[in-house]
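Entry 14. Ran structure prediction on the chain below.
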Amino acid sequence: MLSLRKKIGLIFLVVVFLGGGFFYVSNKIYFSRGSAGSPKTISIENGDNALVVGQKLREAGIISGKYYFTFYLWRTGKLHSIVAGVYEFPNGLQIPEAMKIVTGGEVVPMRVKITFPEGWTAKDMSQRLVANKLPGDDFLALAKNPTQELKSGYPFLKDLPVGATLEGYLFPDTYYFAKDVTGEEIVKKMLENFSIKVVPAIKNDLENQNKSLFEIVTMASVVEGEVKNDSDRKIVAGLFWNRIENQMPLQSDATLEYALGTNKIQHSIAETKTDSPYNTYQNKGLPPGPVSNPGLLSVSATLSPQKTDYVYFLSDPKTGKTIFAKTFEQHVANKAKYGL
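Output, C-alpha cells:
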C-alpha cells in the first residue's frame, strides 16, 4: 500500500505531467507557425480527412504539425467541417488561422492546375500553358529575353551571362494559376519557387565548389536529360565532369536534342555533326547554357558527383536502365547488345 505522502506525490507528478503536456500542445496550437517563407496554394480533395489535410499543410510548411491541427479541429468541433477546394495560405500562419480557412471554405476562385515535369524546356512549358488557355507565348518571350529589372529581383541570377535566357531556372513543379494570370506573373512564380526549393538546399555545397550556379544548373540540365534513375544521376554527373577535366567532349544527346528540337533515343552520325554551339559532340566543355529545367535531384547530383572509372554510358531503350562502360570497346559492345 502506498503511503499518503507517496499518493500525494504521485498525484502531483501526474498533474505536472498533464499540465506540462497541455501547455506544450497549447503552445504548438496557438503560438507555433509554419516554416513556409511565401504564400502556398494547396488543393484539398473530397474525402480528405483532418489527418490528410494536416499532412498536406505540414509538408507545405503552412502549419507546425498535423496532429496538433487534427486535435484542434476535434477540440473545436470542426473535425468534419473541412471543405474541399483550392486554398491560398499566407506564410506565418498559426493552426487556428489555417483551420478557419479550410473550414470556412475560403476557396481561391478559378485556379488552373499546371504540372511541369523535370527536364522540360521553356518551350515545352509554354505549349502546356497555351493548351490550358494561359499566356504561354508571353511567358516564353520573357523567359527567352528577361529584362534587367526582372533579373535584379532574384540574387541567384546575378551570374547569368549577358544574353542568357531563364532556361534552367524555371523550377519544374505543380502550380495553380489564376485564369487572368500574366506571363510575367508565371515566370516570377517559378523563379520564386527556385529560390525557395533549390537555393537553400544547395547553398553550402555550392560555396565549396569552384563553379558558378550557372555552370551547375547547365550541367544539371544535361544530367536531367540523360538519366531518370536517381541512383545513376551522381555517376553520370561525375562522368561528365571527368570528361570536361580531361578535355573530352560530353557527347550528350540531351544537348543535341536541344539544338535540333528533337526527342530521340539516338542520333545519326550526320546529326552529331550539326553546326550548333549546343552540339557537345562537336564542341568541348559545357553547352552555352541549360538545355532544360532540371529538378532538385539533378542539381544536387551535379554538386555531389560520384567518382568512378566509367567513361561511357547508354540507356537500355526497353527498360531505361543506364549501362556504363570503362573503355570504348566495352561501350561498342554494349551498343550492339542493346541494339543501339
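Residues 111-197 form one domain. Will compare against last week's run tomorrow.
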